[in-house]
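User: Design a sequence. Structure:
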């Protein structure tokens, strides 16, 4: 089966835009979230600059610890908030596999360009040309290794899909099919035997490796906080994908929130204690209440597609690979689900 699918968008619901909450005074909820990230398959993130020879090492900080950079985490959660919160398409550049598809995204869904911002731009910041429209209200620190299981150096398979300009995959049929997400491949990564021009020689960290993550947020409205929490927690049988090599089975991770610290400025002046900490069972109850808006929604085509694509079933043995050129030649109008 093709290694990715698209999460569709309800084109009848335009992103709701408004100015971001202020930075110069407190409003809404601020706080900190801490937790762990556990690798469920090998994962890999490039260090920079890339090495000129030998296997590429996993990115480390100045202390030599393996990290998942805050910028990678921000990218992952910005795109998840766009998806489940119905934000704009920040990274849509009007191209798909070298084909011009500028007219295939409705105007209302294009990248925010004024001070009226979608939920993702309000939370993660937005620029237009050289103007800063919003600084953003969520910031991720680098996630740092807690325990690392080293994986031997591997050659990845070629990670470029064929470029058949197969419109039935990415057009639906009038507009783009949605946002691209990769399936999990719990049966493991697909290695190759040698280096070519189309693959990489890398040293991933293995299943079981663990990192500690933390993020801060300021002045979030209730819906923004609930959306952030849902994208972190997702649902019981779902996992995130991060880093390099997603089509080859790399990058499945489990986020677990261990502690939340909330400072509610709205209630600060009415109650004596404005800071609340959630850990243990209390944290579970709080998270399930706060994410209910999403978990209870069983009819949204967007959420249902994300549930299907990011479903984590450790016993799933589906073989994922890009269809061959031969398949594209024979099935020129077949949609993505018909790949075997
Ligand atoms: Zn936006």
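Assistant: Done.
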């Amino acid at each position: 089966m093709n290694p990715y699918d698209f999460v569709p968008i309800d084109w009848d619901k335009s992103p709701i835009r408004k100015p971001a909450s202020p930075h110069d005074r407190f409003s809404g909820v601020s706080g900190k979230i801490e937790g762990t990230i556990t690798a469920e398959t090998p994962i890999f993130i490039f260090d920079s600059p890339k090495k000129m020879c030998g296997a590429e090492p996993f990115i480390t900080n100045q202390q030599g610890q393996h990290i998942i950079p805050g910028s990678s985490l921000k990218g992952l959660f910005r795109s998840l908030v766009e998806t489940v919160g119905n934000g704009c398409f920040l990274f849509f550049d009007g191209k798909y596999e070298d084909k011009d598809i500028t007219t295939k995204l409705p105007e209302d869904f294009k990248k925010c360009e004024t001070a009226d911002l979608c939920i993702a731009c309000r939370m993660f910041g937005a620029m237009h040309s050289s103007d800063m429209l919003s600084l953003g209200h969520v910031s991720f620190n680098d996630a740092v290794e807690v325990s690392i299981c080293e994986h031997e150096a591997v050659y990845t398979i070629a990670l470029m899909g064929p470029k058949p300009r197969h419109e039935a995959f990415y057009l639906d049929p009038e507009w783009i099919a949605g946002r691209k997400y990769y399936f999990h491949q719990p049966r493991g990564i697909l290695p190759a035997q040698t280096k070519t021009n189309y693959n990489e020689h890398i040293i991933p960290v293995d299943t079981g490796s663990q990192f500690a993550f933390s993020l801060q947020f300021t002045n979030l409205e209730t819906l923004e906080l609930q959306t952030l929490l849902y994208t972190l927690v997702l649902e019981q049988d779902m996992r995130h994908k991060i880093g390099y090599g997603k089509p080859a089975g790399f990058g499945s991770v489990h986020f677990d929130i261990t502690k939340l610290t909330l400072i509610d400025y709205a209630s600060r002046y009415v109650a004596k204690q404005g800071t609340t900490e959630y850990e243990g069972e209390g944290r579970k109850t709080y998270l399930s209440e706060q994410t209910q808006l999403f978990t209870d929604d069983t009819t949204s085509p967007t959420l249902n597609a994300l549930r299907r694509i990011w479903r984590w079933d450790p016993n799933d043995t589906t073989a994922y690979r890009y269809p061959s050129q031969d398949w594209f030649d024979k099935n020129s109008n077949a949609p993505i689900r018909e790949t075997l």
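Residues 87-88, 112, 117-118, 120-121, 126 surround zinc ion (CB under 6 Å). The longest strand covers residues 252-264.
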